[in-house]
Fold:
Amino acid sequence: MEIGGLFTALLFGAIIGGLGRLVIPGRQHVSLLATILVGIVAALLGTAAATVLGVANTPGIDWIELALQVGLAGVGVTLLANRSRQKLHR
Structure:
């Protein structure tokens, strides 16, 4: 992977992860690095799901693919936040 591709993945992961945090109500105690990593994974899984559903390549903005990515990021952030909350209460 080239440095430009890595930078793009980090930037896109931060955006998707941040949007995923925005769709979850309340405050999440998840680090910025974890949010970016969740965003990168959610972007990859969302693109794969959109490809399977046949909506990955549409004219204009791929709103369904973006919704899948943000939704998956929200799930990932929620899982991490719940995991860290459980560790605090032990």
The two ends are 41 Å apart (CA to CA).
